[in-house]
Amino acid sequence: MPGEVQAEGLTKDFRTFQRKEGIRGAIENLFVRQYQTVRAVDKVSFRIQPGEMVGYIGPNGAGKSTTVKMLTGILAPTEGTALVNGFVPYRDRTRYTRTIGVVFGQRTQLWWDIAVVESFRLLQRIYEVSDSDYKTQLDTFDQVLEIKRYLNTPVRKLSLGERMRCDLAASLLHNPPLLFLDEPTIGLDVVAKTNVRQFLKEVNRRFGTTMLLTTHDLSDIEELCKRLMIIDHGRVLFDGALAELKRQLWQQMWVRIELREPAQAQALESLSLNNIHRERLDELTYRLVFDREEHTAGEVIRQVVSEVDVRDVFIQEESIEEIVRRIYTGPSVLEFGR
């Protein structure tokens, strides 16, 4: 089915050559070589329904890019199967690649020294897009990305944000049912990131395009994806709703207290606050950190304001970045989500 991704027991092993140091080692390498097998992706299974926007995250070396390369047909799996848009990616590459779009934040699919419009025209011919569909797509992209102002500019003269807008348009010129996004907002400023996210939401809403997003910017995930997959050491640790991840691991809440005068600091320090960590940020500001299973923000605030003269109170929740960082660094990280 167009826009559907199925992975079953997807595994990828790489055979690496261990080089020895020094001149003697170099000579030995000519005659005797030692190899080791490294498993980059370890029996990964999941299914993405048409129209879903899914975040796929993990630390460097976790297996994200290897998974995406297998799903796009660049690599063949060592074991397991992938069925994407009804194709086996590595086996049906010629037909399959016409049904997907790919955006890599660090690389461009546009020709460096020619005008953007010439790259678009070449892609139009490659994907056999009709003139009417081509014009309609450009008009659609321009409404959100404002790309027509860049059409006659060589790609090498575009800023990173401008090039990213054009790369997004190029990847969707043939209206694929599935879009792979690898760090689509890397290096962009706040305004450019907002534009890119807004555009992706609109494409998903208007065309029902399935999107698999790999990123280190978890704001992208929160803005775009309701579902999140976390991979580490080649294995999926979590696959579910972002809200469910927060429910399972959202342990901490923070209350920031602004005192009316410095003298009130002593009153706050002397309060008996069980299992609540006090952190002084400046002369008038404290942050209280507590487990949301033990205390509610309301009871903490009531206890403080009844004894301390407070100017203002702010409630802060633990960020998704903090939650994911704890997953990566926790002592039983590989057991999470089993």
Structure description:
The chain is α/β, with parallel strands linked by helices and 338 residues long. The protein folds into two domains: 5-11 and 41-247, P-loop containing nucleotide triphosphate hydrolases (Rossmann fold), CATH 3.40.50.300; 251-317, Alpha-Beta Plaits (2-Layer Sandwich), CATH 3.30.70. It is 35% helix and 28% strand. The protein contains twelve helices and 13 strands. Strands 5-6-7-3-8-9 form a six-stranded mixed sheet, sandwiched between helices. The protein has a four-stranded antiparallel sheet with strand order 11-12-10-13. It starts with a strand and ends in a 9-residue tail after the last helix. The model is unreliable at 331-338 (pLDDT under 50).
Summarize the structure.
With 338 residues, this protein is α/β, with parallel strands linked by helices.
List keywords for this structure.
338 residues; alpha/beta; Rossmann fold; Alpha-Beta Plaits; 2 domains; six-stranded mixed sheet; four-stranded antiparallel sheet; 12 helices; 35% helix
